[in-house]
Amino acid sequence: MADASERCDDAPALRPEWFAAFLADRGTRKPSVHTMKAYRQDFDAIATLITGGADEVARMALGDITTESMRTAFAQYAQTHEAASIQRCWSSWNVLCTFLYTAELIGANPMPLVGRPKLAKILPKALPTDSVVALLAALEADPQPRRRSDWVERDRALIVTALLAGLRADELLRANVGDLRRTDAGAVVHVRGKGGKDRRVPVESVLVDILERYLTSRALRFPATTKRRSPGTGLAAWPANAPLFVGADGERISRGTLQYRVLRAFRRAGIDAGRARGALVHGLRHTFATELANSEVSVYTLMTLLGHESMVTSQRYVTAAGAETRAAAAQNKLYALLHDGHPHD
């Protein structure tokens, strides 16, 4: 049997019409490309198990969605997948079945009766201060590119924007030059967030200066893409709808290029071994959030700046900051006096 994940993600003929209606409904909420891909992959995985084969998925009936069939399929799925994958697949099917129930296409959503693993709540891991220092130093150390794809000004702007504005990878990819706006009180970055939920993140002049130096270097590389009849540099040289970050070809930067440039900077700084698995741009965002939490900003402020849907998510950073503060306080050498049996005065 072919792995369902190897099938074409964009082949509606391989899936029933009611699933296509679900995707159309989710599409109105402006989810990320990766979220839509996850819906399709998770549907294929379970539907293949229920129907007995990938070639049968298109003929899957709504009546096939029962508590028993879902429990059986997820039990099979769990034999070959990690807890995080099972949890995500369960969530995808829960959203799908909620849609079908709300549309009165099925009598009930069976997913609350289908078991799923509980994931450990891992506290976000921020970069230590010395790692941030090493990272920034590495970006300054080699102004001469070693290869055509190297672009120090662009890489510095990418990393510092993630560190000082806390943007997700997708938000960096979607950002336009016009999203960085000067105001009487300073500057703000207009962020196109997840699910179409935009936010405004205040930034200081040091970040604006770094971005403008990058944009000036970009004008030298790609003069034909600047504003016509504009003698300006920095922000003034570019149309508002021009992508803020571009690749070596002058086009909007791709996700792969973005992550690779951050990874390469981590490696040059000698801090790659210490990062959490998969934490590149998101590791920089964690650092932004943790620094704010250490500064004792409110959970509501954190939620607003990070674009979280729930305060519960933002609270994790406050909890992490509290744990780090407690761990630091525990290093006080005066505690050793008590452990060594000295009298209490």
Automatic annotation (TrEMBL):
It comes from the Bacteria. Keywords: DNA recombination, DNA-binding. Residues 122-330 form the Tyr recombinase domain. It holds the Pfam family Phage_integrase. This is Tyrosine-type recombinase/integrase. It comes from Mycolicibacterium austroafricanum (Mycobacterium austroafricanum).
